[in-house]
Amino acid sequence: MTAVANVLETNPLREGLDQERIPDPSVLVIFGASGDLTRRKLIPSLYSLASDGLLPSGQAIVGFGKTEFPDQDFRIAMREACDRFARRRPTEDAIWNNFAQGLFYVQGDFTKPDDYVRLKERLAGIDQQRGTAGRRIYYYAVPPQFFPAISQSLGKEGMVTDPEAGGPFTRVIIEKPFGRDLATAKELNRVAVMTFRERQVFRIDHYLGKETVQNLLVLRFANGIFEPFWNRQYIDHVQVTVAESIGVEGRGGYFESSGIVRDIIQNHALQLVSLIAMEPPVAFEADSVRDEKVKVLKALREFPLDNLADTAIRGQYGAGSIMGDPVIGYQAEDSVDPASRTETFAALKMYIDNWRWAGVPFLIRAGKRLPKRVTDISIQFRPAPYPLFRKVSRVTTHPNVLAIRIQPDEGISLKFDSKVPGPTVKTHPVTMEFRYATSFGAEPPEAYERLLLDTMIGDSTLFARRDEVETAWAWLDPLLRRWETSADQPFSYEAGTWGPGEADQLLVPDGRAWRRL
Amino acid sequence: MTDLDRIRQGEDLPVDFASIEKSLSEMWRNENDGSADAVTRAALWNVIAHTNNDGDRNTATETLGRASATVPQRSIVIRSALDGPAELNSWISANCHIFSGKRQVCSEEISIVAGGHRVRDVPSLVNGLLIPELPVATWWIGDLPSQQEEYVQALLAPADRLIVDSVHFDAADDLRLLSGVAAGTQTIPADLNWIRMEEWRLATASVFDHPVMRGQLPHIRKVRVVYAGEGGLFGEQIEAFYYAAWLSGQSRHVMGEGEEDVQYRFDRAGGKQTGSLLQVEIELKGGGRIEIGMNDEGNAILATPSMIDLSQPTVTSYNQRPPSALIVRQLSARQEDPVFHRALASASTIASSRSK
Predict the structure, then answer these.
(1) CB within 8 A of A391, min separation 6: which ones?
(2) What is the ipTM of this complex?
(3) Do A12 and B209 touch (CB under 8 A)?
(4) What mean pLDDT do residues A446-466 have?
């Protein structure tokens, strides 16, 4: 918010335009520029920002990677990427030609200090050419094992500056995974803060860039009607589902060392839980919001390790079919151990031990090769306190459900019972619906667009903070260790189903069931 | 075939004006009788389009039909002819669009044709047809009326927003009337001509984003605005007036001939789109100069400052938007635009001074 105010102070011509938030021009250096993320997400998102008039003139983007690429070849490859993946398609020549003038490539090895000397010289030249005045954003689109080498080299070559020390800004964007457990997360953070200050570090979880996720805060805190009911008095339980229909898609090697808990629950699912459960922040600014999210994570009840089956179920998909197409089982995937015990599905029953949520179960399930791709949060309310209609034979009451669809077909619906018209009392559940597509029409921006722009502006509200990441790992570590050291196999489930039957059984003792999605 | 099936295929269904709402309800009720082909009836706005002839009525119908794909709405299209034969007739139809590849969302459209003394019955009929709790936009097509004051006031009474297209205005008084709506009523005025200028505002703003250019706004000395026109219609100048009013207001400088004042010049040139901006030249104290104009392909606005050594001009994407897109843009903004509010008052003053 402060950043926006500053922009308006310096350029009043921006007032009232959609493009109110324009950052100062900087050089965005992408480490790992020859990778898939750069081609599919980063450059197409940056182009779409340029097309929407949201990038400052002079903005430069430098790809750094092992592959040999003259600038012109890099531009051609990135144009092809935009033609395929950008939200703004077809690519417009006038916009592209201008955007491409700011695209550069430096060939180098992340581990060779000499290559950073060359990079530094090139960046200095670009500063002269583009007017970027030493402002830097480094994007680590590389596996975490390269983070220390890159950070140390940048620090050693004096490529990290800070306005508080009188220099231009430097920011660094780190992609998940933020470690694979608490110890590795702490080590990554320790290395990062040797070179950068915490406020310079932007840990990207692209879920937080989704419009629907941002709308959780608006839904809760911009409307008066929900907050009075948003507590244990009125809410029976909360369900969070992050379902993917795809398998490991050629990333078997990565997934073997990860599993669904590290890949989805530690970051995306816990971000959703934090936003649903957090207290109102004192202000809509980065640290106020993140302070409240961390409090939720700190209040998560520890797993009862001697009785895990009552709170955590893991599964692994076998062969089956998705939308009518037969698919192989996980253990038959490329680069996967045929005897793998890696979980591709997890269902957790968790509790937040604080005043607001005491006793309210938060039920999370995430998995691969489930019937459809869907991310959904369901708030199920308690039944009416007195069953007025229980003596009427045709009346069956249903719980009220506030369902927030994160993707696809983004929207919010509220289910409640209504009387069926007629002389007798009969009820039927009906749904009030809000859908982004019907209410706002326009396609929402890609999550990366919002997050890249926020980094350029310096707004870290939608990024994970160090203590957030470490607290999440601290909660999950005991569960993951127990599963890793246990001889038990994950429960098997057929691809194309909603996970193993044991996940359903997790809810049965409480008289609850997973919502059908 | 149900009524809804017929109107989904483009038919208008004549209905008695006294039972429009009932006919709509029956149509939707029949549709929900066990049909597997689910249709969602949606509305975010009540949009009243007021026209004076059949040509404009057809334009309004077509424009709102397209706009409803993005902003579902209950459209009420009126064709009123005070000089015509006494009549009051109505039709219902629906604008249906597919969302997310499967969900069919329909917006209702009601057409009212009134003539002679029956015209005075239109405001009360329209009031009864508004969906409660939804905002009301009145789109007045053509010149703003300076007569039939009672009728106009009755039609505008429920309007949260009055949408006009000032390119069709024939006198400076029209801008003054619009400005009067802003000052004297709860209705928020909006102008499609202002929306057309958005890319020019963005292109101009982008020049002043650069750190070197910050602080240069107070040093503007001369501004030349070139617009497309043939000299036949007053409204063709209004976008240029808006530009000047906006730049002056946001930069907080004074227009005039004084030593420290900023001089504005408006020039007409040939162009395809009457009333649209073609070029802007800004001169700064000390000799700096900014040129803003369309590229050869007409799909981007290039802004080139002479005083900073950047290899490229700033480039702003430009697409000539159809009327439906301009309407959508207006309806997407739920609140008053204070920048337009200020520019309107100032543009009205410019228009008055130039028409003397």
Answers:
(1) none
(2) 0.87
(3) no
(4) 93
